[in-house]
Request: fold
Amino acid sequence: AIILELDPSRAETVATLLRSALPEAAISILPDLAGRPRFAVAELG
Reply:
């Protein structure tokens, strides 16, 4: 798995870029403790 910490305002942009760069990966965005989208996780295989 690849895990990236994000600026919450860029979460959707980063997720889109990950989906285009790693089309075979399962991409999910996880919240931080305040509920903001903070982590992008790309799981391969």
